[in-house]
Specification:
α2 packs antiparallel against α3. By secondary structure, this protein is an all-alpha fold. The termini are far apart. The relative contact order is 0.19. Helices cover 72% and strands 0% of the residues. The radius of gyration is 13 Å and the shape is globular.
Amino acid sequence: MVILGANPDRFQQYCDQVRLEFKLYPNEIFNAGRRFFLDNVLKSKNIFMTSYFDQLFSNQVINNIEGELKRLKGLE
């Protein structure tokens, strides 16, 4: 889960890698599943199992995920 809190460039690279991994799925299906996952991460009480990682990465995770959700919505 720490990848979700990476710097924005690395996070985007990760997102591109995830899309490549699921390239067999059409955009409509992939985007819906990806949005479902990302929305649920944001709804989690704690993103990480420890308060240390939560404090260290939570703000960046939220920024990264919100940016990715906007990007996915733009692809609809």
